[in-house]
């Protein structure tokens, strides 16, 4: 359900990319270093659904540097190890508090779609709609000093968005 919900939310993000076969370290591949994190409070399921969209090449490079391993997120043979890397990385770089209480992200999975990776998480047992969501988001900051992290949060039909530019990593949403 989470996967289907978020696939339709960001088709425009593909316009950020101009992957053309240029060398991996070339800015010509895509001039923006951006991730998009979408959070949606699902009142029926009483959970916060989270998806993170990150360019595959940037993410693989960062994972390889952080974990000192060769990373190919499209290799089915490495699915178990890739799940572990994506889970650990995002849980370390995306921290949440709901109504001033730190919460744990539960990994749902990830998928590669075109030139991006979608990571899916949930915060279970969010029994009431949060009035305040505090976020620390430092995704890809260790790799790119031009990194931009966009965040969209929806609670009770109200959608709020913000952008964090490196080195900014904290944001707060009030509902």
Low-pLDDT regions: 1-28
In terms of structural class, how would the helical and strand content be classed?
A: alpha+beta
User: How far is it from the N-terminal to the C-terminal residue, by CA?
Assistant: 24 Å
Largest sheet entry? 6 strands, mixed
**Tally of DSSP helical segments:** 3
Q: pLDDT average, as an integer?
A: 87
- Give the radius of gyration: 16 Å
Order of helices and strands: HEEHHEEEEEEEE
Q: Widest sheet: strand order?
A: 5-6-2-1-8-9
Global morphology: globular
Overview of the structural elements:
By secondary structure, this protein is of the alpha+beta class. The protein has one domain. The chain has 3 helices and 10 strands. The protein has helices at residues 2-7, 56-67, 79-93, and strands spanning 33-42, 47-55, 94-98, 101-103, 106-113, 116-123, 132-137, 147-155, 158-165, 170-174. It has a 6-stranded mixed beta sheet. β1 and β2 form a beta hairpin. The protein is globular, with a radius of gyration of 16 Å.
Pick out its properties:
alpha+beta; globular; 175 residues; 19% helix; single chain
Topology overview:
Layout lengths: L1 H6 L25 E10 L4 E9 H12 L11 H15 E5 L2 E3 L2 E8 L2 E8 L8 E6 L9 E9 L2 E8 L4 E5 L1
Parallel strand pairs: 1-8
Antiparallel strand pairs: 1-2, 2-6, 3-4, 3-7, 5-6, 7-10, 8-9
